[in-house]
Amino acid sequence: MCGILAYLGKEPALPILLEGLRRLEYRGYDSSGLAVMEDAEVLCRRAPGKIRVLEDRLADAEWQGSAGIAHTRWATHGKPSEINAHPHSDCRERIFVVHNGIIENHQALKEQLQQRGHQFKSETDTEVLAHLIEEYHQEGLLQAVKEALLAVQGTYGIAVLSADHPGKVVIAAKGSPLILGIGEKGIWAASDVCALVSHTREVVYLHDDDLVLVDSEGYQISNLHSQDISRPKRTIDWEIRDAEKQGYPHFMLKEIHEQPQAVRNAMRGRLLQAEGIPKLGGLTDVWKQMVDMERLFIVSCGTSYYAGLLGRYIIEESTDIAVEVDLASEFRYRKLNFKEGTAVLAISQSGETADTLVAIREARRKGALILGLVNVVGSSIARETDAGVYNHAGPEVGVASTKSFISQLTILYLIALSLARHQTPSLSERQSFLRELISIPDKIQQILDGAAHIQSIARRFSQYRNFLYLGRKFNYPIALEGALKLKEISYLHSEAYAAGEMKHGPIALIDEDFPSVCLAPRDSSYEKMLSNIQEIKARNGPVVAVGTEGDRELPKICDEVIEVPATHEILLPLLTTVPMQLLAYYIAEERGCEIDQPRNLAKSVTVE
Ligand code: F6R
Question: Quick one: which atom of ligand 1 is closest to the CA of 302?
């Protein structure tokens, strides 16, 4: 939520900042801006709307300065407008700040600053930072930023440029991700590695309370108490092409097509086939505690929450661990007393979701073992867990999660199987399960190869305004995920129910204008799903069904059928998810929606 970027080096900053902003745009896209140090003066330009508007406004800029900061915004305080776009500046327009996060005590600080004569220009919480820094600017830029941060409560990733201190950029992080990039041509700081990876793969992940002074000598990290801090350099293991569309019209479609590889990456190096067990290195240190675990809470949001819901079914299917799944934003409201043997698993693609972070902090306070299933390496959630597993799904840029969901499911199967081997399944059952799991990427590919059929169904159904999604057992979370995908990228109303619930209320909605998407592969709930479909048809409701290849019943009663290959019942969600994503994608495309950047959304939700 909001992307920030800073650069200080040997090259003109302007093109570097614009390129980085384009890569960060998925984090927020209601306005953008940047500031560059040009001959002891800071030049700043801001624009409402997408980055291309800012680019147009900078078409005549011949700025050569080699230090600058930039921002792309997802509004929290203050409407999306030029005046509220970052960078924000002090009264003298000498100090410029970009910020991701929320300054919780900004109102009180603003009133105090106004009483001391400061003039505010915007409605944002961020502007107080510029004025606070101004109060201390004679103490040097680093000290001034430190003093300002000591006065604020809340979260921040900031970058500060001051005309009074040319040749310096100050960066600070608390509760918002910031990564330094160290390259031959300079030093970068960004909310996401995708903004740096075209320049360097050497990075340093900043931690909470880190304060960084970047100048021509390099970078020094300290904390708010002026203690020097040392953070390890790491090498990113992916390349810039991973964060590009590679010929696809949208990142979402590219990421859907990357799913066979995402499943392979989630399994790579983690299967001991002869023993029929997965080996998850990231859990080794806590494995004994996990084996003794009696109760597991899964906490997550959105798509990651639906992965957690499936996690409950599959872990309970194969172990006697009691699993509860909570929306991370609600978890804190439960009066839970954790006994020994309780663990909490946070699932998060970004590793930065504020609700999930707060939930694991609460669980840690209560003494639970904290585990993570995270895609973004070095992210806050990854750092705050006792142990965990990385997805290795690569960068996910489309705002709607796709490949990270499939990857989360894959790893949940591995976790369930690792825990299950201490219970019932025999060696041959485990080996057969792993063999089937290994065949899943090819089966996903088969579904992707049939995308044109799903596109034709999307054309036929794109004019309806409301959709009902139904599934049972393992496919109930997939119905929820399908409905979420549709609503977030096409702005159509869609809701999902466990199919058994339909008769308890939602059936009242059904008529010829209210289609249902029914997940009805040949599994143990197939007959019941068929009955539900009959009930819908009896009320003239149009039905799109997802069924197993070769099913003869569904085409007789449904308007459209999308086939998926057969597999073990428990693994079906890895296949049935894919038509859900493609259907949503093609309906949104038919309706001319902004698929990769749906309105009001942002990829990484760093506010509660
Ligand atoms: C939906 C979507 C969101 C995220 C949710 C959690 O397509 O992307 O619902 O799943 O905001 O994000 P993470 O997984 O980053 O914690």
Answer: 9
